[in-house]
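Supplementary Methods S3. Input chains for the assembly prediction are listed below.
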Amino acid sequence: MEAWAAEKEQDLKTGNAVSVLQDPMVPEQFRVVRRKSETADTFTLILERAQRDRAFEFQPGQFNMLYVFGVGEVPISISGDPAQHDRLVHTIRAVGTVTRALDKLRKEAVVGVRGPFGRGWPLEKARQHDVVIVAGGIGLAPLRPAIYHLLRHRDAYGRVALLYGARTPDDILYLKELEKWRGRFDMDVQVTVDRAMGDWFGNVGVVTQLVRKAEFNPDQAIAMVCGPEIMMRFTIYELQRRGMQNDRIYVSMERNMKCAIGFCGHCQYGPKFICKDGPVFPYTEIENLFGIREI
Amino acid sequence: MENLDVILKKHPFFHGMTEEHLRFIAGCAANEVYKSGEYLFREGESANKFYFIRQGHVSLELHAPERGVLTIQTLGEGDVLGWSWLIPPYKWHFDARATTLTRVLALDGKCLRKKCEEDYQLGYELMKRIAHIMEERLHATRLQLLDMYGVHA
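Predicted structure tokens for the full assembly:
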């Protein structure tokens, strides 16, 4: 057996970064329980196991491979509550062949699911520390399970700040939840949009600017960042400017994931595989790769 | 109630300035209050002031025919508003509207301009700080123009 294959097999045996599954390449049937429109091009699917025989457990930040039979498979972050084991929630932007096919699914439709895969957000490491969450666009979806977790275990964490940037007010995800979270006294929620008409009374400007004013202690806080790569890059600059060390910054990366268990190499990122080693990385692990255009 | 020079000294914009310069700047400063909806200035008006937002929110706006009012940026507590007072022809290029009850420290730009011509050290210190704000705003504007969250992102 090739060394790399042996290593992957060992990873599977030990559960190192990859969830132990009976056969991670075989999708399981899930049924659409509900479909909800979020924005003009983004929707949420709520799924449950067709057999309803087992709970579905995952770590915030992990992803599933969703398979539209006869069309193809696509990696989608899990965006539901990690404490709710009977439902699987995915927020999806309809931008490609498979995601557009997912967009057409309605109640009772069946979809193939493989997962959960990958490494999630460092919620254990963040215990007793301030947490600053910076999300851009649909990047809020992979962070939502972490927010649910933080709020459920609120006493275990210091200050929690959620900084969210969207393109326009119409593109804001989970608007009602954001309003609810904003109403809490134990969480600082700041939302900004890149552009707006006169009927918008919130912030206008890039999300990176919110980092400057957010209340957290950069010496001990943990930052969780998810959004387009360019947004993450500039958010990291701002976090560093606030005095945050790189080992306290975590980012969720995205590449062309296919097998999801580190075999196929489609999502290779230098020496890393996004699917297996990520998608969440401490910035220290990838800082040398982050600015390399050829990767 | 805090004196204006104490308030100025606490603002990061003025960190590192000499006592003498701070005293002079405080002499050009006045507290102003704007109700929600009131304009601090309008596009095309003479730019003879600049502002430190002490409380509230200000929206920088531009009116475009057939599109209505476009919000370019919003500013809040701690932000500095306006640099047109320093650059000829000293005209505002946007509207600035308070979107909540807003308290500002308004600095007399005309008075400062005159002093800057006489005292190049003060002029340099102010220009250095304004340049930093301009750089930040330009940077933010470039990111906004990128349309980061568009489908190509």
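Chain A has two domains: 18-117, 131-290. The mean pLDDT of chain A is 90.
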